[in-house]
Design brief:
Layout (H helix, E strand, L loop, with lengths): L9 H27 L7 H23 L5 H24 L9 H22 L2 H16 L5 H21 L2 H17 L2 H6 L4 H22 L8 H29 L4 H19 L5 H20 L4 H21 L3 H27 L13 H22 L9 H21 L10 H18 L3 H20 L6 H18 L4 H21 L2 H21 L3 H20 L8 H58 L6 E4 L3 E4 L3
Antiparallel strand pairs: 1-2
Helix pairs in contact: 1-3, 1-5, 2-3, 3-4, 3-5, 4-5, 4-6, 5-6, 5-7, 6-7, 6-9, 7-10, 9-10, 10-12, 11-12, 13-14, 13-15, 14-15, 14-16, 15-16, 16-18, 17-18, 17-19, 19-20, 21-22, 21-23, 22-23
């Protein structure tokens, strides 16, 4: 068995209110269309009279019903429909030639002003948003059904002005939402933009669109300043109004400009951004932080689009990269969170554009005919600029100076966003036209830089990205091993040595990086040196590694140095001994013998010094510890007033420390 529905349920709202509003709206639109149809052979004056008569009947019926408490909502809908029909009738009395009974546009404007004023006063008197909303919605939609002209702009301006005035006076922000939604929705759905473009000249079409849209946009923007965000409902209404007003105005105006005057598109965007930017000064004295944020983001977005319209290709990417760095610095330095958010939104856009128009063609060995063509120095400079832009933005978000400016979620999210973009570009940079022998070296440079940054922060994810770059470098070194060149390979080995020093030669990763660097140098010498000089290199390498191992207290270096000597001996016995009749072989054995004897002596001397230093350090620490303990006990004895040893007898024989 069905239960009775509650008054606030969805079923009740649809059955009581929305059916009534839809019915009134359908009735008013039908009467408006009937007045415009040509097959009714009534004279124009009679058609106008019929329109005003029907509106009067709706008003009378609404007033009769509104006096009954249980039918108040029904009467408000009829009153709103009556006033909207009266406004439409007064509008077509001059605007449509077939119904023109008022020849003067000024006189008809006075009539429309009187009707709009009376309808809004009626809504204020009845304290009904429904009446005012119906007048705005139905009045706007029926007007837009007619042929669009400059008089249409005047009528719409009167309606919107009345809605804004009533909303401000009665503190009804929801009425502004309904008015703006009705205006832009009616303008688009009724086909007014197409009526403006159709048959319009270049200048007339732009001027007509501006006359229709700009006054309404400014009215709704200006009305927001009379409210505040103390109440959540008001805040939600103002946010909705700002979004509807901005999106509706931009869509309608840009549609007209793209069709009639595309060359003025950037100028319009920049002018609109300027208006939103100037509104921030007025909002500074109001309690409108959310609306101020929306306007600031709109100003930044429109200005960015305006400038971007004038750029293309790599220049567009360069502009976005500069914007990311500048907005991040300014947003953190002056505590403007909108700048930081907008910069975080632009960064992926700039990265995607660079990937599509600069890096992807370079990977496929294609290019554009300009000075920034992929694979040229300009493209590489742009990639370096992107790494600098994203890297600096990430570093700024982790700087302790700006820790209090941002919340932890923002700091971590934005840092990893910028860092991930920079890390991907570091991995892709060697493939932007850099010579192949330098690929491994650049990956190692990038990996070591990320590892050093990860150790400084500290952050394990940053270090992990550095290790991934080193893995790419390892693959490149393996595939190009026979063709290693001196400068790139030595540079790569030096970078690995720096990474080992950053981790510390006594740590596992530090030893690993050091061993890999030495191995890279050894393989380079094996590939590039002649057979006559390889023994000399092994001799020098072993000697230097043994000495360095003692001075750095790194056993791994000493072991590698001894291994180099072992390789030297094996080489002498297996290769050089077969060339006994060669003077070079004789000199190699003499040199190797002398160096090995010297290395043995140096090893013994350094080993003895190392043992003495270790023993001295241990001897220096132990007496100091005992002395410190005795000094501490003397202090305790002095506090307790005793000069005897601090022991007490336990069970006659055993002694234990005295307890204060």
């Amino acid at each position: 068995m069905d239960t009775q529905t509650s008054p606030g349920s969805l079923e009740s709202r649809i059955g009581l209110y929305w059916l009534n509003r839809l019915g009134v709206g359908s009735l008013v639109v039908g009467l408006a269309l009937a007045l415009m149809l040509s097959f009714f052979t009534l004279p124009a004056i009679l058609k106008i009279a019929v329109g005003f008569s029907c509106s009067g009947l709706l008003l009378f019926a609404g007033e009769q019903l509104i006096r009954k408490t249980d039918m108040k909502w029904y009467g408000q809908g009829l009153i709103g429909g009556g006033w909207s029909l009266a406004f439409f009738t007064g509008f077509v009395a001059h605007h449509l030639p077939a119904l023109r009974v008022i020849g003067s546009p000024a006189l008809d404007s006075i009539v429309l002003l009187a009707i709009a004023t009376a309808s809004m006063l009626h809504a204020v008197n009845r304290r009904s948003q429904t009446i005012a909303g119906f007048v705005g919605l139905l009045g706007t939609f029926t007007i837009c059904l007619t042929q669009v002209g400059f008089f249409t702009g005047s009528a719409l301006a009167l309606l919107n002005a009345g809605i804004c005035a009533v909303a401000i006076k009665m503190r009804w922000p929801g009425l502004l939402v309904v008015g703006s939604l009705g205006f832009y929705g009616s303008y688009v759905l009724s086909g007014s933009p197409y009526a403006v473009w159709l048959g319009s000249t270049h200048n007339n079409g732009v001027i007509l669109s501006s006359a229709l849209l700009i006054p309404a946009w400014l009215m709704y923007c200006f009305s927001i300043h009379f409210f505040d965000e103390r109440e959540p409902a008001t805040k939600r209404a103002l946010v909705a109004l700002s979004c509807i007003n901005a999106s509706g105005f931009m869509y309608c105006m840009l549609s007209a400009l793209d069709a009639l005057a595309p060359q003025h598109r950037s100028l319009f965007l920049f002018a609109t951004a300027t208006v939103y930017g100037l509104s921030l000064w007025a909002m500074a004295k109001r309690n409108l932080p959310t609306i101020s944020t929306i306007n600031q983001l709109l100003a930044l977005s429109l200005a960015t689009v305006a400038i971007s319209d004038q750029l293309s290709g790599t220049w567009l990417t360069a502009f976005w990269l500069a914007e990311v760095a500048i907005l991040t610095v300014v947003g953190l330095a002056y505590e403007i969170k909108e700048f930081r958010w907008f910069s975080a939104a632009v960064a992926p856009l700039a990265f995607t554009h660079m990937l599509a128009y600069d890096i992807a063609p370079a990977l496929t060995q294609q290019g554009f005919e300009n000075q920034f063509a992929p694979g040229t120095a300009g493209a590489r400079y742009l990639c370096l600029a992107a790494i600098g832009s994203f890297g600096s933005a990430a570093a700024m978000h982790r700087w302790d100076l700006f820790r209090s400016v941002q919340e932890k979620v923002e700091k971590d999210t934005f840092f990893y966003l910028y860092f991930s973009l920079a890390a991907m570009l570091v991995a892709l940079f060697p493939m932007t036209g850099v010579p192949t022998p330098w690929h491994a070296a650049l990956w190692i440079f990038g990996g070591v830089s990320l590892i050093c940054a990860g150790l400084r922060l500290p952050d394990q994810y940053v270090r992990l990205s550095g290790h991934l770059n080193l893995w790419l470098a390892a693959m490149a070194l393996v595939t190009s091993a026979p063709a290693w060149q001196w400068l790139p390979t030595l540079s790569a080995a030096g970078a690995l040595t720096i990474a080992g020093r950053q981790y510390g030669v006594r740590t596992e990763l530090g030893r690993l990086f050091t061993v890999v660097a030495i191995g890279v140098i050894s393989l380079l010498m094996w590939f590039r040196l002649s057979s006559n000089w390889l023994s000399v290199f092994l001799t020098a390498e072993g000697f230097l590694l043994v000495v360095s191992g003692f001075y750095l207290s790194a056993r791994s270096l000493r072991v590698i140095g001894l291994s180099s000597f072992a390789l030297l001996v094996v080489r002498l016995l297996l290769l050089e001994l077969g060339k006994a009749d060669s003077l070079h072989t004789v000199l190699s054995f003499f040199t190797a013998g002398g160096v090995l004897l010297a290395a043995s002596a140096v090893y013994a001397w350094l080993s003895a010094r190392h043992a003495e230093a270790t023993a001295a350090t241990k001897h220096k620490i132990e007496p100091a510890s005992v002395q410190d303990v005795e000094g501490s006990q003397d202090v305790l004895d002095h506090i307790g007033g005793r000069s005897h040893p601090s022991t007490i007898e336990c069970d006659g024989n055993a002694s234990a420390p005295a307890v204060l």
